[in-house]
Amino acid sequence: TAIVDSLGGLRRYLSKANEPDSAAADSLTGYIEVRGTLGGTLDKLTLTDSVRASNFFMNGISADSIVGSMSITDLLHARRGTIGALAGAVVLGGVEFDSVGGRVDIEDSTHARFRLGARNRDVIAASASGGVSSAGGERVAVVDSLAATIGESQWRLASRATIALDTAGGIRVDSL
Question: Is 4 helix (H, G, I), strand (E, B) or coil?
Answer without folding.
Answer: strand
